Amino acid sequence: MATGGLSESLAGTPVRRGRQTWTSATILVVALCVAIISTPTEWRRLIENELHATAAGLLKHKASQQVHIVEIDANSIAEVGRWPWPRQHYARLIEQLDDAGARSIVFDIDFSSHQSLQGDTALAEAIETAEAMVVLPTFSQTATEHSDRRLDALPIPMLRDVSNLASASVLPDADARVREMPYGTVTDGIPRPSLSAQISGVSGSAHSRFPIDFSIDPASIPRHSFISVERGEFDRSEVAGRDILIGATAIELGDRYGVPVYGVIPGVTIQALAAETLIGGGLATLGPVPVLLLALLLGFLLIRSRTYSQVLVRAGLYLAVILGLKLFAYFTAATLADIVPGAIALIIAATAQAIRIAKWQLDEKALFDEETGFPNASAFGMREPAEGTLTVVAFVKEFDTIQAVIGNDGVGQFVKRLVDRIRSVHHIDAIYRTDARMVAWSHEADFHSLNEAFAEMAAALNRSLEVGSLRIDAEVAFGVASGNNLPAASRAASLAAKEGKLWHAHEEAESVIMEQRVSLMGELDEAIADRQLQVVYQPKLRLATERIESVEALIRWDHPVRGHLRPDSFIPLAEETNRIDRLTLFVLEQTISDLSDWSRRGIVISAAINISANLITTESFVSAAISIVEDSGVPRDHLIFEVTESATMKDPDLAVRNLARFRELGVLISMDDYGTGQSTLSYLQKLPLSELKIDRAFVQNVHTDRSDAIMVRSTIQLAHSLGLRVVCEGIEDEACLDFLRQEGCDYAQGYFISRPLSASDLEAKLQPSDSLLMAS
Questions:
Q1: For the segment 681-726, what is each residue's pLDDT rounded down to a tens digit?
Q2: Is residue 666 scored above 90 in pLDDT?
Q3: What average pLDDT does the segment 642-646 reach?
Q4: How is residue 728 annotated by DSSP?
Q5: Residue 480's Cα: distance from chain center in Å?
Q6: Nearest CA to 515 among 453, 448, 565, 580?
Q7: pLDDT at residue 590, as a whole number
Q8: How far apart are the C-alpha atoms of 81 and 89, rounded to whole Å?
Q9: Torsion of CA 208, 211, 217, 222, to 10 degrees
Q10: Bigger pLDDT: 239 vs 286
Q11: Strand 67-72 versus strand 223-225 pairing type
Q12: Bridge partners for 693 per DSSP
């Protein structure tokens, strides 16, 4: 139910009386505290800035005419014909302005590099002989985009020895708009005034800032074309006794910044506005406390409201009073008053009072979905997620069609079946039904683990859901957003469904994801180089002997800061960023080392290593793997390379040749995740396989799902007819294992048998007499 509709439906209803007066005081105290605490946040500062800009736009006035701009405009660029200009042009400009009686000549142009000796000398002589004060700029900038190291740019020694130096640094806010300028900065270890402070004669500490008065109309600042001044084609009386700023205004020179009120303007214009601000006495600032005290007084009146309409009218009136105070302070006292905390306090007080009225009229707001019993969107919004939490939404495609087939009475059961299937492949503590066609949950780990989980969930839903006597095919799309932002995640899921994508991330979440990806991959490089990763082994039970005769090597990463990272949080990224070859070779080397240690202790066992799809047709990897195996000293048939169906589909001929090279060494080849790809019988016969490994999606419910049972039974028969053994993964209970025994499956793997173990734990679990060489 929309809050607007709720407010309207209860408008005019009297508030229940007899409440404790301290409740009202608590509302005000909480409102004021929240407003004070929340004041520094960026979005509140953004609102304050926009209010400042609105006030400035209403109070436009002309500049003092003390500062003039000599602009390097498009006409000057066209006349001179090239850029950068020979410095004789600047020398002639100084001579013209000095002869006209300019008080100061201030450049916003970089002179930090040499040009010709003749040009540099001419400019230095013009500066030295000028009666007017000549100011050249210094700059400070970061060494690279993401570096904290700063580089200072000063005029060349020939020029700075004869001139005054001032800082021309412009400091945009986070939204790329310039609102303040520094009184000065430190360059080359020396505090220097800013250009505006130098012109106005106003001093201040280095790095402290002052707000620019954007009520000054930049169009009213006198301007002169550079080329006209250089040629003497200007009214000399206009610049006599004035401060002259020289800088670029031509668009092609790119020295432009965004500012409030006026959009994007040249940097020299910003310097002129800053100088005009200081010449005019500057802008005072009024902190939030006075307005907060006024909000306290108005808040007492607000929380005496008895109906929703009274809350709405009074809140609007009191917010208008605060806004009027801001405009009055700006118009009459050139003061920027911070009103957002006070406005927030009033809004919070109004909201709290409206909630009190709602509680008096409604027993409670339902927090659970009636059809499923799952908590709903309201419950989701009441959570307090941990820092870094992501919101995930699953959007059911073609929901209206499904609803028409199963009827309204079957929708609840359908959603429950859907959630059960999702949970079967991804652990989720709490799932919320946030919309008729959406369910949501929180993800507190890194995003990377979700990428693989989405694919697993989609694969799990390839099998129909049983709703009553019907079998329903369901397809979902996923959305991801940062924090507790359910609307953003819902929009992202809807967009993914519309575009036919598996998942989509909201912009804010994409930024988080990108940071995590870049950071994690750099850390993975270090982990591989320093051998910080761990190889663990998941046992495979040979059903004919009831012994552990093989294992699957798996990579684990206990990150010193992030903690335990799931393989699916970094392996897909390693594949995307071409690091999977180093990772796989690391696993291969460690597995061979452990096989050798076990062999010396009388434990004979084979081990399987997963080979990524991209690596089968990569010659550098194949050659490196062959070299490692040849130098290993372990029996070759103790090694099994597991590849997926898709790995052999991109370039079948090259894949077959490379797999044959491994097979000729004696290494066994297993096709992993069989059943999820498009392999045909003739294609299987071409591959040098020793084993088929049936995907867990078909195995874990094989004893209860008839279609899964048929698929697994037929695959076992097919494999045996081709002389291949069969491994089934995903066994999680005794009934499933009994079914596989009856059907003649060769090896079983899953948590019911054993979770992955470290090399030492596995060795302790196996005695020399308990392990046998795996039959080839």
A1: 666 778 899 999 998 888 988 998 888 899 899 999 999 999 999 9
A2: yes
A3: 77
A4: E
A5: 11
A6: 448
A7: 93
A8: 12
A9: -10
A10: 239
A11: parallel
A12: 727
- The neighbour count for residue 538, using CB atoms within 10 Å, is 20
d(C-alpha 24, C-alpha 374), whole Å: 35
The total number of residues shown for the chain amounts to 776
Long-range own/partner contacts, residues 502-505 (CB < 8 A, 24 or more apart): 502/454, 502/455, 502/458, 502/477, 502/478, 503/450, 503/454, 503/477, 503/478, 503/479, 504/477, 504/478, 504/479, 504/480, 505/447, 505/479, 505/480, 505/481
pLDDT in tens, 365-411: 567 888 888 888 888 887 877 777 889 999 999 888 888 888 888 89
Q: What is the pLDDT of residue 682?
A: 62
Whether 181 contacts 210, CB under 8 Å: yes
**First and final CA of the chain: distance in angstroms?**
66
- 8 Å CB contact between 195 and 168: yes
Nearest alpha carbon to residue 547 among 776, 775, 766: 766
Q: How many CB atoms lie within 10 A of CB 138?
A: 25
**CB-based contact 629:611 (threshold 8 Å):** no
Question: What six digits make up the tokens of 124?
Answer: 């230095």
Output the average pLDDT for the chain: 84
CA torsion through residues 748, 752, 756, 759, sign: negative
**Rounded average pLDDT over 632-647:** 84
CA distance 613 to 645: 8
Share of the chain residues as helix, strand and coil, in percent rounded to the nearest 5: 45, 20, 30
Encoded tokens for 252: 């092609």
Q: How far apart are CA 464 and CA 466, in angstroms?
A: 7
307 in Cβ contact with 15 (< 8 Å)? yes
Q: CA 566 → CA 456, 559, 579, 604, 651, distances in Å?
A: 14, 10, 17, 29, 30
Q: Residue 640 forms beta bridges with which residues?
A: 608, 668
**Whole-angstrom Cα distance, residue 500 to residue 398?**
12
Q: Are strands 133-142 and 164-167 parallel, antiparallel or unpaired?
A: parallel
Is a pLDDT exceeding 70 seen at residue 42?
Answer: no
159 in Cβ contact with 136 (< 8 Å): yes
What CA–CA distance (Å, rounded) separates 266 from 168? 13
The SS3 call for residue 216 is strand
H or E element that contains 453: helix 448-460
Phi, psi of 386 (to 5 degrees): -70, 160
* pLDDT band per the 50, 70, 90 thresholds, residue 20: very low
**Which tokens belong to 744?**
């003649």
User: Tokens standing for 403?
Assistant: 């609803």
**What CA–CA distance (Å, rounded) separates 587 from 609?**
7
Instruction: Check the CA dihedral 72-77-83-89 and report its sign.
Output: negative
266: number of Cβ within 10 Å: 24
Counts for the chain of helices (H) and strands (E), in that order: 29, 31
Q: Tell me the two tokens of residue 353.
A: 């009072």
Separation between Cα atoms, residue 626 and residue 84, nearest integer Å? 59
Cβ atoms of residues 254 and 114 within 8 Å: no
Quote the tokens at residue 605.
Answer: 């066992």
Supply the pLDDT for residue 95: 95
Token pair recorded at residue 745: 């499956």
What pLDDT, on the 0 to 100 scale, is given for residue 285?
84
What does the alpha-carbon distance between residue 669 and residue 689 come to, in Å, rounded to a whole number? 5
Q: How confident is the model at residue 342 (pLDDT cuts 50, 70, 90)?
A: confident
The token duo for 243 is 């401060």
Q: Is 230 exposed, middle or buried (0-12, 13-18, 19+ CB in 10 A)?
A: buried
Q: Does residue 351 carry a pLDDT above 90?
A: no
Contact residues for 29 (Cβ-Cβ < 8 A; gap 6+): none
Cβ–Cβ < 8 Å for 323, 339? yes
For 678-697, what is the HEC assignment? CCCHHHHHHCCCCEEEECHH
Residue 4 has pLDDT above 50, yes or no: no
Tell me if 73 sits within 8 A of 226, measured CB to CB. yes
